[in-house]
Amino acid sequence: MFYASRSFTVFIILLLSFSLPVTGLLFGQQPGSGPSPRGVISGTVVESVSHQPLEYVNVIVYPRGGNEVVTGGITAADGTFRIDGIPRGKYDISVSFIGFETSLIGEVNVDPASAETHLGTIELTPGEEMMEEVTVTAEREMLRLNLDKMVFTVDRDMTATGGSALDIMESIPSVSVDYDGRISLRGNTNVTIWVDGRPSHLESLDQLPATMIERVEVITNPSARHDPDGTSGIINVIMKRQRQPGTNGMLSFNMGTGNKYNGSVHMNHRADRFNFFGNWDYRRHGMEGYNLNDRNIITGQGDTLRQLHQHEDFFRRGVFNNFRLGTDFFISPGNTLTFYGAFNLRDTRPQNFSEVNLFLPSSQDLYTTMERQFNGFGREYVLNYTRNGGDNGRQFTADLFYSASTGETFRDIRVDESADPGASEIRYAEAYTPGRLLTLQADYVHPFNEQSRLEAGAKSIFRDVEDDFNFYDVDAETGEHVTNTDFTNYFIYSEAIHAIYGIYAHSFNRLHLQAGLRAEQHTSEAEQRVTGQYSERSIPNIFPSAHIRYLVDDRNALYMSYSKRINRPGISMLNPFVNYSDPMNISFGNQDLRPEYIDSYEIGYQYSQNRKSFSAALFYRDTEDMISREMTLFGGANPQTRTTFQNLMRGISYGVEAVVNYPLFRWWRMNATGSYYYNKLEDDSLPDWEHSGDAWRVQAISNWNIANTVNLQARFNYQSSEVTAGRTIGGGCQQHGGQGILDAMYYLDLAARMDVMNGNGTISLRLSDVFKSRGFDMFTYGPSFTSDLVRRSQSRVLFVGFTWRFNEYRQRTEREREGSLLDELD
Known about the structure:
Elements: H1 4-27, E1 39-47, E2 58-63, E3 71-74, E4 80-86, E5 89-96, E6 103-110, E7 117-124, E8 143-145, E9 149-153, H2 165-169, E10 175-177, E11 183-185, E12 192-195, E13 213-219, E14 234-239, E15 246-256, E16 260-271, E17 274-298, E18 304-332, E19 335-348, E20 351-359, E21 364-388, E22 395-417, E23 425-432, E24 435-447, E25 452-474, E26 481-483, E27 489-508, E28 511-528, E29 533-551, E30 556-567, H3 571-574, E31 578-579, E32 585-588, E33 596-609, E34 612-624, E35 627-635, E36 638-647, E37 650-665, E38 668-682, E39 692-706, E40 710-719, E41 722-724, E42 740-742, E43 745-756, E44 761-768, E45 776-782, E46 785-793, E47 797-806
Parallel strand pairs: 1-7, 12-14, 32-36
Antiparallel strand pairs: 1-4, 2-3, 2-5, 5-6, 8-9, 9-13, 10-11, 13-14, 15-16, 15-47, 16-17, 17-18, 17-46, 18-19, 18-20, 19-21, 20-21, 21-22, 22-23, 22-24, 23-25, 24-25, 25-26, 25-27, 27-28, 28-29, 29-30, 30-33, 31-32, 33-34, 34-37, 35-36, 37-38, 38-39, 39-40, 40-43, 41-42, 42-45, 43-44, 44-47, ...
């Protein structure tokens, strides 16, 4: 159960100790305690052709005739800006926005004794490459680069049409998706996945339709504000939300070859002080493919003792329903209360048919059939309160998040031997896997002025998961089920994490600094009730972070960052009982597994001007107690493998990455990414094979615009071969693969989109894996065996879809906070 009796009390104490000192800061200062009087500059920025307001425009204040930044801000949704705290004097103002010519305003006089200096309406002229395609609002870029994160706009990615969130991930720089849908960030599979800034029991990325997603944020070196979990960083999936007046919505339907269908309905209604939103998404997915596994059992002298060839055909069928319903209540200007509930229904039915041929000393064949059915129901509830302090920029947020899921899995397993047709082994398994997650969080932001800011927060996480697994031997004649105690288990895992953090940011003209510290107390209990195994841990942790940015000029910037992170093993990594889904490949967890600790460093350069951008970064990660998958044999001539997890002494990873956005012509735009990284595993227990090596990846996305109504897109991905310690993402046990070498892979996707119905409708077409070249090939090794695995599935799929929007439904990005240059130090 939850640690509610003791841990909730700890959270309340932390929250009170944090909130009492800031209450006075949040709701006002004492008379006479404020800063000395300073001036204000305000105005409105519009686009010169349509005269529509422009949001997120940069307004930078320089001393008259100088080039050192004094302060600055950005425009709001209505194009307005207001910058306060400016000392008396004369200034030059620079107003710039990606894709538009910069406007310079000179000799602006600021006198705190008089009324604020209002610059009136400032018109920005589109750059040459945009002049022929100006619309009512500025076109959003597919990819935007911030100091510590990349923001990927989903509706600009046509190659994800009809797909899931996994298809979106394949377009994002730094992110790779392997053949089994496992995600890696800069070559590391241990990445934290969030939905709307929170971990979720409810949705996995392969079940989440792309139509539900507005944008994806990739944070490679998070600050102390964020949870430290995930060795390579955080991927935050932001769901679509609307707050526009009136009623608007969107309907979408897609269908693909191989029994693939999905549809969605998104609705929003805002009236007075209430905003209601909701959506329903349906996804039906089918997939089929095969695995080939050749295994050699060898002696110490390198001679082959026995050989195994396994051919497995698999079929996947799944139906997913996602519902979301909520409301925003605008209590007063600056005070908002939000509540929503989300629900997920899942029904998946994979089937595996395996033929195993054993050779040496004599031939023998085994035939295995495994049919599985999973039924799941998940729900989430979120209650959020936000108070903005108006012109002073202060903000207080309180968040309560509860997630719960239940799942039932049923397996029918049958093994037949060719040597003895009557000696069939029939087995049946059922599993019940409930899980609960409760998060309580409070955050406060206090800008002292335009140059400095303090943040503080407290958070408690309570997690409770179970794995109740029952395994039966079935009599082939009578059908009687007899409990098999060797494989039946009941494992319970509970944990509580309490954290407080503080961050201070300061800007010295062009130099921006941020330092943070996060303190955590992690308590966990693990109990294997069948064997009576029990363990309890209580671990205090400190996680520092630091970010530095230097603005060379309006176009160029340099940055450095550091953060300490952790990877805590999940329930499947810890559960010591055996997973018998594939009789030839047994897997189980390790209850003594320790968490990984990672020191992450990054240094980089960014350039941005008129829709052109370039970034380059060097990164280095040093991992202590690195978690690795270990595959071994049972011993003797037994060809079965057993796979578990172990801690290695150390893992080192470093590399370089470059991202470029460039418009070749007004109608042709390119986005390309190149990355190189080196991985090394260090431990005396590793077999005498390659356990270090380099790898590289290239991705290119090309967009063509034809007559402003037709868009074409091509996406190419290439991933070189690499040394791997096995898959550890998600805490689950994979049936195949451990320490070894993963072969290279490449693929090409094509897509087209045409606007109809005066821009309110869109017809889309997408072909994935044009050359049918995508696959998973891996060489795994151990002290007494080698294994070659080839995995293929139905990767070439043709999708066609239609989307209809009414009442100008659009997906507008909502900034968490506005106004200060320090906001780029998130």
